[in-house]
Amino acid sequence: MEEVQYIKVILPLKLAWEPCYRISEEVRTGARVSVTFAGRKYIGVVSETGVSPEVDPDRVLPVNAVERHMEPIGEKELALWRFMADYYLCTMGEVYKMAYPAVKTAGEEVRARAEERRELMKARTSELYSKRILALEERLAKKEAALAGKHNPKVMAGLEAGRDKILAELTEICRRLEVLENGEATGTSFPAGTTVLASFACHSEQSDNSAFAEMQAAFAKGASVLLLGGAARIGVLVEAARATLAAGRSVLMLVPEITLSKRLQAVLAEAFGDAVLVFHSAETAGNRREVATLLRRNDRPRLILGTRSALFLPFKDLGLVIVEEEHDIAYKQDGTPRYGARDSAVMLGSIHGAHVLLSSPTPSLESLYNCITGRYALVRTPLEESAMEIVDTSVEARKRGMVGDLSRVLILRMGEILDNKGKVLILRPWGPMDDLKEQVEAVFPGQTDNIGFATVNEARRKDIADISLLVLLNADTLMDKHDFRADEKTMQTLEQFRGRLPGHMLVQTRQGGHPVFLQGDDYSLHLLEERKTFNLPPYSRMVDVIVRDTNTGRLAKLSGLLAEALKGFASTSSFTLAGPFAPRRGRETDPDALVIRITLPKDRRLPTRKKEIAETISDFEKSYKYTGHITLDVDPV
Questions:
Q1: CB 539 within 8 A of CB 603
Q2: Class of 539-634 per CATH?
Q3: Which of 104, 91, 213, 168 is closest to 618 using CA atoms?
Q4: What pLDDT digit, counting tens, does each position of 226-271 carry?
Q5: Which of 315, 333, 625, 635 has the smallest C-beta neighbourhood within 10 Å, fewest atoms?
Q6: Superfamily assignment of 199-353 in CATH?
Q7: What is the pTM of this model?
């Protein structure tokens, strides 16, 4: 009688529990299995073996099949998933679905079925070859026996020819069988590992840059590093990667946008050649699959350059995690689960025992706070002298220096650039561009071919390497009074464009004297003090409860009821609650959503309180049959 064991399986569904299944063969944690749930088939991941079923064993469904041709999920991958599920108040199934989306899993299934067919065909072909070999050996034995007798020369020649023909066929069939079973050496486009390590080592002399030495000293003490500075910090990142690769360990370098990835790719390829692997949504599915395959093979240290989805790759020996422009809000996942790639990258480094290096010209206040508290070591490289010209439009208006939305200073600068055949890019924080285009056409008739227009968010994804003049209009409207992070985000936005721009930058604002435009460390410290006074992050933790419904009456009613339920929880916990209020994107509000914002103290009870919030919401969904309308955003940006 077969021995039955029970396992728990993660399914790509929003389930607060992991279903139990029975299986009569040996299986390990991380294995992929085909199971049935609620009448539908899914590919799941074994999360635990040898469990005791919580229901009658006769009601436990069997596993349909163990997917031996689909790659298992490693222990360290599962550890990252569990961190994300716990911290961001989502389920393991939601993280699994994000890490292995349906299209990717379907592709794996297709390849797995094709591999099964290949193996079946291989087994059948091998059987046919084996039978043919036995038959040829029998025929060869008979020929050899016949040749042992006495025959005239003509008969003997015929027997020898027949023997040689059998022997040739036997040799060929044996060769084919060996190739079928063992494969042929196909070679590889990558050099052997020892050669690669030697090539890294020969360039890994410690730089004279004091920042690199400070960083290495901090790593030696086990600290994560925040690298602050201008373009010079990229050289430090490269040296940090070089040292890690020379030590035989891999590097993950995260960037917030694909555009930045493309710019860095050329720098890294020059330094590290084909050890650089690129992983983001602009790469083909085949290329992304090849990256995962190479990492599983772990034949040599690699440098993986990617956006936030690269966190879910199957790393084997990760020695360094770099988060470039760590402040960027693009590191926050917009869909469920709403994880933050920066903090998840820090956890990934911890799971792998890897060094963590965060890098930015204008770091997030959270990271600066971590430096103040001693969690991170702060290392600086020089910042470039500001090439940003500030035009105060309130002052210009008083002296009649404005032509519509354009200052006369701006018109003068644009004229100089256009006369020299340079390119101009004009940005607005948001909104349509038609009226602006009309104004520019009126001032520069027939010259608009070299003038581009974009919103700030659109420009983040643009390559601005060929822009001679970048113009930001209405910059003060970026500082939305409804967003406590607005000043911080505005500083980061300005520095992001300034750092990527080879030309001149001109900013028009009605608040020319605002500290945001001075780009000083003092103002960051002032903002931290302000956050402390009002108990805002990083001195507390926030959770946004987002309720979405196209029925606005029901949305208002149930959001209010949920807020009341959470206030009841508040009476037993130390936190503040605001809302429901309409979320804003720029100047617009979302009519189909309301937000309840919870602020929690940072103490030892924080994880417990977060789980209690999730449980309160789960109970609310069940009571009001309101599943699918509520999402949680931990650490909203």
A1: no
A2: alpha beta
A3: 91
A4: 999 888 899 999 999 999 999 999 999 999 999 888 889 988 999 9
A5: 625
A6: P-loop containing nucleotide triphosphate hydrolases (3.40.50.300)
A7: 0.82
